[in-house]
Amino acid sequence: MASLGKDLTFLIMQFCDEENLKKTARMLEQESGYFFNTKYFEELVLDGNWEEAEKYLSSFTVIKDNKYSTKIYFEIRKQKYLEALDKHEFHTAIDILKKDLKVFAQSNEELYKEMARLLALDDLRENDSLALYGDALTARNGLLGDLRAVIEANPLLQGKTRFPQIDKSRLRRLINQSLNWQHMLCTRPLWNPHIDTLFTDHRCPGSDNMQAQLSSLPPSPVAVEWPLSGDSSTDSLVTIDQVTAALAEEGRLYADVKSTEHINEGEGSQTDISTCCQASRKELPIEFPSTVERVLDMGSIMTSMDFHPVHEALLLVGKLSGDVEIWDVAGYKKLFSRAFVVNLLTEKVDKNHAIAVNRVLWSPDGCLFGVAYSKNELHLYDKNGSSFDKKFEIDAHIGSVNDLAFSKPNKMLVIISCGDDKLIKVWDAATGAKLYTFEGNKDPVYSLFPGLKRDIHFLFSISISGEIKVWLFDNKGSRVAYCAPGSCCTRMACGNKRLFLCGTEENGESYLVEWDENEGNIVRNYQSLSKRSSTVVQFNTCLDRFLAAGDEHVIKIWDMDSDKLLAVIDADGGLQARPDICFSKKGNLLAVSAVDNRIKILANDSGRRFLQEAAFDFGDSAKRVTESFSNLSVGSSPFPCQGVAGGNGTMATNVFKIVEVSRCQSMLLTSGVKTNLIRRLVYTHTGNGILALAEDGTHLLWRWAKSGKATMKCAPQLWQPRSGLLMTNDLPDKSGDVVTPCLSLSKNDSYIVSSSGRMISLYNLVAFKKMRNVMPSPPAATCLLFYPPDNNIIAIGMDDSTILIYNMRVDERISKLEGHSKQISGMAFSTNLNVLVSCGVDTQIVLWDSITWEKKKSTVLQVSVGWVTYDLSETNVELDKDQQHFLAVHETQLAIYETATLRRVKQWTITTFCTRISHATYSCDSRMVYAAMRDGIVLILSAVDLVPRIEIDSSAYLPPQLSCYVDPVVVASHPHKPEQFVLGLSNGGVVSVFVSEAALGGMWLLLWFTYAALRSPEGGRCRIRRRIVVAPDQACRLESSTEDPVEEDHAELAYLGYCGEQFHIPLCSLCAHELAPHLF
């Protein structure tokens, strides 16, 4: 009854909001404490209504409740104090300091004194920590971002920030149902009854002419209705049959009223499913994996599967026969297989009953996997060089081992099992020793689910009778016990910090619900699961947004925030009646079991590209499995970093891998602006700022405030004007149009030109605002570049394959360059040679005279055999420091060309590399090339021979929670520090990376020297070419010599680098540490 009372309170809140009784609704929220209205609270903060905001907050929590509550109150009062100082209202500020902030002085006296010292400043921005403080609105928006995270983490507010999903006008509808029921009980019901009040039960008045009234009654059930708010045309009247169904229904007051009409599931179900499937394809979001890309033949019945947590292409499969296999889903290959071997522990098992696999599961880091069998045993496999070996096998339970899980309490990896013996056991994953035994279940334990909250590890268990228990990792028994909705075999999953339960009752009726673990209640009951199932329905979560379940030969999909069925996928037919489903950790792939012992792999666009790219890289399966498993422990790609260097065709070897954070420093730049993936990224020419352009057209600018230099010691601040307005490009009207964002920064760092598929705009970077629009589309701009001698002139690459030379000051087109066949993707000006280098998605490179704007030369970047380029695959170009050479970047290769002749000097292709190149750039001294790969790896190549020397794994520069799910999209190098660069990420973030000198010292340097005679005795000159290999702490060695010899006393050694520098070194035994000062 207490739960129904809470539900009724929510219905009254909804009613008050619908009737525009806002103050009443807020008062009810405060007095009941059931719902913390974050939207209302944020409106109070944005309006600066601090007193009302604190009053509303105090109904749910006070300052001293916990550290989260203290933080919320402090941030609100601090912002109020700063705004008073900014307005020079010093009396108000002193009053706030004494009355509001004094309470925090006991816990942090230094901070309180620091805030008091702000009173002595004429402008609070003179304080270093407040140097980038904008206007009040901008600061309040930034404050909201911090408050949201703290409110979400506050245990006193958890479960109170989401209003239950209730149908429109639910309270009115319940009253209508009650009135219908009362009217049905009337002895003389009128055809059109009049409702005067709700204070008493309804009764139709008596009549002298009863027969006349009886004859006037309609043959069908009547309906009495209290008018609904809004448009009632879509809300049909509630009939008596529906009221009867509602009265019979148990659960929440705001559950949907279901019809009692009987449906024959045996007839027409396939037609309904087909119709639903066709109708739902338009509704299915594009990010959900829905297209069949692979079909794998297992050869026997599959019982369990799990994608690898790091390597998306590896699928672990358990079978009814007891076999365990690992499959490469991109290459259709089986990489690993182990059959169940009968030993002393299992030799007494009935020979007529085969031992099947109940569950297979990877450990969180992917270095181990566990197997639970239908008879007694639990096996753990460990990576051993090129394969997996059985680490230990345990006689874990009496009877079947039903489920297993991994957890890491006290920083120790453990494996947990449960079985038919009603026990749960915890084992040390390193030694196999039993650590804990959880007892107290009345029935066999069916499933396990580990949890983590506020650094406390715990475990959910569910028995076959639906009893849910919560355990801590000790021997003190269960802490909490609940009952699952169906009192049956149930599994649990987590998504977006919410728990979900799915199970099937003995009568075949299945359910899928969102579960409140704090109160043990149902939050939402998802509809449309079958009523007659012979096996347990399998389900999973995807992308922290969707729920999916295999049911009735299809995959049914729900949005987590709606109980209505979102979509249905039939996967081209042929699925099992209750198919097993499994998502990859990134949510790009979906494995689903099909008839005839097959597994279908479904993919979204990202997954499809991944499978296509990976398929080109797969060679011999034996070699592949060796390379895959040897790299699992470092979290890098399962395939080695190899490429072919042009010229001599040598393979890249001795690649120094960085998988430790100590080898490089990284700093994730903070931003309160929500964006999607970063498409363009540049340092300012002075090096004190970073400018990014996101796919949604938003510009982000970070600056180092006081030092004026980009340093890893302090983080740059996101810069915004006091108005709080962003610099945002116009986007195309049609959401499906392909957008190629582009920007260019003027050499004085004052202006940028930018476009995101529509209007080209000129922005003032100092004032951070748009100055004017330059040129509309179509055709859309796909590449922009300032002309170095004159900031008024820009080169505009268009998607119609032309290049416009345009004077912005007078709005005049200077020239139109035609020579490409597809859209322009890259341009670079050489002022030394007076040329423009351009390239397009057609892989053509063209050289233009920047004086006459005539075409001089052209060449085509040759794509390697075996690679298929996408229609919009970009080619980019970048000049080196002396502008005599340029770097060409394509998704399949890197190449260095001579600028004047377009002759290719060096090339590196990725013929055996696991994934394609996202973007690459020179270091500021042009001696290294930074290449960001699509699997998260960053390569550092020597520009001398274009061979990879260092490989940086994503775990070395990204936090653990991001390294498996976020990839680099674009890279930019620091204009003055060759060891520093930044990466634009697929989640809209930007990370700055500094590679340590120790790591760079591990590179082999291949240097070409020219051994030149100043003047021979005959007065002529001759050259000797020597290849000198320099290794750390080793002497240089001369490998070859050609042409005519000269006398050494007439000669000197000159280094011919791309930077055009020369230095003189005596030709003798020379160590690398002596040479280093000349090189770096």
TrEMBL record:
Q: Where is the CTLH domain?
A: 34-92
**Which GO biological process entries does UniProt record here?**
regulation of DNA-templated transcription
Q: Does the keyword tRNA-binding apply?
A: no
> What's the domain of life for this entry?
Eukaryota
Keywords of the record, alphabetical order, are: Repeat, WD repeat
Where in this chain does the entry annotate a coiled-coil region?
none
Q: Any keyword Disulfide bond?
A: no
Residue stretches of each WD repeat: 394-437, 817-849
Entries under SMART domains matching the protein: CTLH (SM00668), LisH (SM00667), WD40 (SM00320)
A Pfam family annotated for this chain is WD40
Q: What is this protein called?
A: CTLH domain-containing protein
